[in-house]
Design brief:
By secondary structure, this protein is an alpha+beta fold. The chain folds into 2 domains: 340 residues, YVTN repeat-like/Quinoprotein amine dehydrogenase (Methylamine Dehydrogenase, Chain H); 96 residues, no CATH class. The chain is 23% helix and 31% strand. It has 5 helices and 29 strands. The strands form 7 sheets. It has a 5-stranded mixed sheet with strand order 16-17-18-19-23, with no helix packed on it. A 4-stranded antiparallel sheet has the order 3-2-1-29, with no helix packed on it. Strands 4-5-6-7 form a 4-stranded antiparallel sheet, with no helix packed on it. Strand 8 and strand 9 form a beta hairpin. Helix 3 packs antiparallel against helix 4. The longest helix has 50 residues. The relative contact order is 0.12.
Length: 482
Amino acid sequence: MRLSVSAIRIEREMGNGGEALVACSDRSMGTGIAIWDIRTGDPLLHIPTCASPPHGLLCLGNQFLVASQVNKHGSVGGGAIFTWPLKKSQSPLRSYPIEAIGPISCTMDGVYLAGGAPSGNVYIWEVANGRLLKTWRAHHKSLKCMAFSNDDSVLISGSDDGMICVWSMVSLLDMENLESSPSLLHYSSEHRSSISGLLTTSSANSTFISSSLDGTCKAWDLVSGRLIQTQEHPLGITAIVLHPAERFLLGGSIDGRIFVSVLNIGLVDDPFVVAEDQLFVLEGHKGSITALAFSTLGLISASEDGTVRLWDAISWVTIRRFNYQKAGAVTNLALIPHSSLLTSSNHQRVPYQIRLSLLEKCPQPEANSSKGTVALLHSCSSLKDHQTSLDFRTNSLNHQIFEMEEAHTPAALQMKLETSIDNRMWATRMTKHVMEINKHLQSRLLDLMQNRLLWSAEDDSPTARKSKKLKIGSPSLEGEKL
């Protein structure tokens, strides 16, 4: 029953018009992006001039395709991020960050875009105006993959040395401290090789999954960073995906096999290991698995052998095979509603229209604005009252949890987890409010600094010095001071 409900949920998200499969390679810019109808296998659209690294392609709000571009000759500078509107036939919006960008990720609402660089730097942009909100050195090695939590409260990043970091979005969106490093909630160095995949669950357990070329997949508690489960495979894992029911984890390996294993991430006392003999194996690809995804029709896998396969999720046999021209490896997969490719003359409308702008290279100060001072004071007072109320509720809940823990009840752990999730969601909502306050305060501060510089310049001018000499001893000016 859970499988059927999950399929219905995906079908609703994708719309009644079915799904379209998007694929691209990192081998040649001329090969571009290929889009097929999953149900019929017919090609729908070809977008030229795109070569995207692994985890470098995503669909933004079912309205845009966003792809980071492979940097030529492996140099650090000269990165590019291209954005194509799906509803219109026009040239892509080309943004050129200060350095090459590899993996990218976006929030569920499409408001923020994150990008990771080979240098270990991470960038956060606000999509609507293209503003670079934050950039910092997140890892010592190259970024390999990134993922936002389902409630957009945290950003998870994985690097080439096996390190995983979990960052607070409240800290990332703090516009008052652009130069400071954001708060690191927790990190892990359990993996012994490069991180190849990151994904979060939609269940109330608040967990995320990581995979690595060391042959392991690990389940983590998102709040505490505690290791819940480890799955061991005979070969390096290059891509992962969750079954829609979130009861099975599928991992693609470097030899083309796909391992299917049971994912048990309930509330357990100690982490445990799923051995190799507990895995079900799918075989069919002749090259390393590069990407995995689930559609309403089944599992979709891409490989370095240049093919994309659609597998039936019950019999686990190949239903359809897509050939990605002659360029070789398919590095990225994405699923979009078929209706997203229709022209704007069609009567189907999206819930809200996402605005896009060119992405900035460096953080910029906010434009001057002196409006809303009185409203800001009231907002600050309201925010303080809200925080006081939240502290009271939190203390009350903590007292209840403590009493339940004294009785050694499982409900205490569940309540503790739900309380933490609620607090994170509230903090994310309040961040936008605080950001608006910071913008006005920063603008006011810049105005005052600019006026002081102008006054200083006028005081140092020859005319001002001469005027001061004439004013000395004048009775009419006695007692007048600025």
